[in-house]
Amino acid sequence: MRALPLGRWVRAWRGPPRGLRGLSAHRDPPQKVSVEVLDHLEHLALVDFRDAEGVERLQKAIEFADQLHEVNTDGVEPMDSVLEDRCLYLREDDVTEGNCTKELLENAREKVEEYFVAPPGNIPLPKLEERETFLQGS
Amino acid sequence: MAGTAARGCAGAWRRAWRRPGPCAAPRAQRAAACSARGGAVPAGHSGLAPWVPVVGLEVHAQISSNSKLFSGSQVQFAAPPNSLVSFFDASLPGTLPVLNRRCVEAAVMTGLALNCSINKKSLFDRKHYFYADLPAGYQITQQRVPIAVNGSLSYSLCINNKMSQMVTKTVRIKQIQLEQDSGKSLHDDTRSQTLVDLNRAGVGLMEVVMEPDMCCGEEAAAAVRELQLILQTLGSSQAVMAEGQLRVDANVSVHHSGEPYGVRTELKNINSLRFLAKAVDYEIQRQIEELENGGIILNETRVFDSKLGCTVPLRDKEGKQDYRFMPEPNLPPLILYDAKSLPANMNHQQVINIDWIHERLPDLPSVKREKLVEQYGILPEHSFTLMNEDGLAEFFENVVKQTQMKPKKVIGWILKDLLGYLKEHSLTVKESPVSSYLLADLLNLLEKKEISSTAAKQVLAELWKGEGKTALEIVKEQKLQLLQDQKELEQICQAVIDRQENEVMAIKAGNRKVLNKLIGLVQRETQGRSSPVLVKQLLEKKLSE
Questions:
Q1: Where do the H-state alpha helices sit in B118-175?
Q2: N or C: which end of chain A has fewer CB within 10 A?
Q3: CB atoms < 10 A from the CB of B494, how many?
Q4: Which residues of B355-377 are buried (b: 16+ CB within 10 A; e: fewer)?
Q5: What percent of chain B has pLDDT over 70?
Q6: Is the model more confident about B404 or about B5?
Q7: Beta carbons of B329 and A100 less than 8 Å apart
Q8: Which residues of A touch B (CB under 8 A)?
Q9: Which among B88, B99, B194 is the nearest to A88, CB-wise?
Q10: pLDDT in the model for residue B537
Q11: CA separation, residue B359 to residues B129, B338, B341, B356, B367 (Å)
Q12: Single pTM value for the model
């Protein structure tokens, strides 16, 4: 059983989510996201928080997700997919696809003799000090 | 390759690397031994406690299958760029992974052969990183719960250079996981661009993670060699390193005995077993010297430069990678069954039965080696060399079948003469101009005492030219038949005795060694067509009269 039986749920739940306006006395203070973490995220996911509103949106998203901590999940196995009870389909080892080089290259901006063209290696995002980003001021 | 794989760590950390240049070669002040027993390396001039090198390996083996792990495009080594790529492999939106049954079976076979516990429920995850040859931006792998865990791999090592003393070592297998291969990047530095070919993207890989139980390059190479033989025997991978079907990354560190493990470096770009041994040994040496000179070891990735024989840091990797693992949302858990848990009403094609696979595993190399020793009475070292050379064991067995010569004698011809020729001319057993039939034929002549063993070697040299002649034809051509006429032989012996008065006196006075000179003279008279054993007998008989 993945989900808690209803009775346990009611007992474990300390109350309905208050929403993002008021802070419950029971809840831990919201986690502040540091500039280092934001910079790290920008490197990893190549997103650009762009301005204070972007960072605030992230902050609120974290607070929203933090509500999950209110549920007591001791002894309950995490569910990571609603597909968990489905059968994983096994395909026979036959060649059924491929041979569509032209189609695949149709959308490529640049190509060289049927190869895709990419920049030489990863171009890392410049360090925080060296790039123009909103985060620099934080 | 046999030499590299078999010779053990009794070798010294010698001053082999005295080469100037960008790779400042480390100098071992004292020859040290990574013994097959202890693995400790006596310290250099600092006189501290001995260094213990620690080597762990991550081996990626390409699964031998017709189609890829999650798509139906073909798996083939050389093909026009991007011709073996499906929409899923190119990561076009709207495509989903569909697991290939054959790849799962290959992983189960490999897990069973390596004594692993097969996880009846394993999960798929996404490992995120950016690179041009990874169009999706993530690789589907099995990080949390892989398909097989906790196994072991036993391999043999020679602890001296003469291949006469073998010792068995074991390395623990941490896990085996299924994962996707990435595409290939061709770097075009002149035009500052990378060309990407996705033919290899999505091909199934088995990653075999070995615990750091090894202590030097020889052990690492021997372990990988054994794994290669096992994979080839199972057919789960063709494991040819040169074609990229078997890739090895080595993790190397050193520490003082009794202290915690040192910082490790990861070695990449190793293309052969020989380079694997060299790279690992170089890195151990480099780390020891660095630490003895008061430096520190960085947790970095280094690349082996085969031309210079050293490892250099890889510039592209900036800092530690954060792969942000997450469960693969498009794939439910992979469930495997055994005889007990087999579901009654499921379609056979959708069920993988571990026990069924176990029953059909072929004899592993270690089992075959033992069988060869038992069946033919050869030494374990011989059996090792037979199995180490592709097709040699089969060749040997074919010769034995077709000749009256005892296997114990045949093995000498196979390992010394035949293998010697093959190595000299860089040929594989399959390419041998001398077939098992021809060799058996020759050995029969020798066994029937129609020719001497010296003559046999001459005949083999002639056969090697591959001119289509049989052994008998060559013997007749070069008049190599042994003198069968005993009387004629006796006459020649007598003649020699009569001529060599001084030598005869010396022998009668007790100097037996001079007899060899007389035998030599008889041989010369008969143009090598007399059996030395018989000549000796006759001479001795005559001299005692």
A1: none
A2: N
A3: 13
A4: eebeeeeeebbbebbeebbeebe
A5: 89
A6: B404
A7: no
A8: 40, 44, 46, 80-81, 83-101, 104-105, 112-122, 124
A9: B99
A10: 83
A11: 40, 11, 16, 5, 15
A12: 0.80
